[in-house]
Structure formats: structure tokens, C-alpha cells
Amino acid sequence: QDGDFKFPLESVKKLKELMEGNRHINPRVMVPMASYSPCQDKHLPEEFRPVCKREDAPMIFRRLSLAAEDDLCEICANAACAGCF
């Protein structure tokens, strides 16, 4: 969840994969993840398309990607989690 947007965890994991796979445009130039927006990617799950219409889309995608970090259990990554830590 990010603000009023809610997405399935599996879609957020797919978003994270897209963002990590597209950070390099040129081997010598890395695009900062905070400025990358996957909106032009044809593999972007459809539920993220409304985010693409927002000016702050790169930051929303960045926050969602952080929510899918591998070190979080799926229960803790879920907005309903009361606290695993």
C-alpha cells in the first residue's frame, strides 16, 4: 500500500524485478532508482498504470519496491501486519 493505492504483493514483487533489471541503461551509467519510472515497460502489471499518471510516480514505485525487499517476510510486507520485528 502507498497512500490510497493498494497492490497485491506478487505485483509489487514483479515491479521490484522490473526496476532492478532496468537500472542500467549503459554499462557506464547507472540510473538512480529514485528517478527511474517503469511506466514505459510493457511488462508493468496493469494495476500500476494509474500511478503512472502521477507526477510523483518514481517515488511511489521506489517505496513499493522497498516494501518487497527480500529480507521481509511476506507477513511483514503485508499492510495488515501488526509487527513481526
UniProtKB/TrEMBL annotation:
Protein task: Endogenous activator of intestinal guanylate cyclase. It stimulates this enzyme through the same receptor binding region as the heat-stable enterotoxins. May be a potent physiological regulator of intestinal fluid and electrolyte transport. May be an autocrine/paracrine regulator of intestinal salt and water transport.
Q: What is its main location?
A: secreted
PANTHER family given in the database record: GUANYLATE CYCLASE ACTIVATOR 2B (PTHR11318:SF4), GUANYLIN FAMILY MEMBER (PTHR11318)
Please state what the protein is called.
Answer: Guanylate cyclase activator 2B
The record's GO CC annotations read: extracellular region
User: Which cysteines link up through disulfide bonds?
Assistant: C39-C52, C73-C81, C76-C84
- Family matches, as Gene3D superfamilies: Guanylin (3.90.1450.10)
Family of the protein in this entry: Belongs to the guanylin family.
User: What keywords tag this UniProt record?
Assistant: Disulfide bond, Secreted, Signal
Pfam families, alphabetized = Guanylin (PF02058)
**Where is the protein found, in the record's own terms?**
Secreted
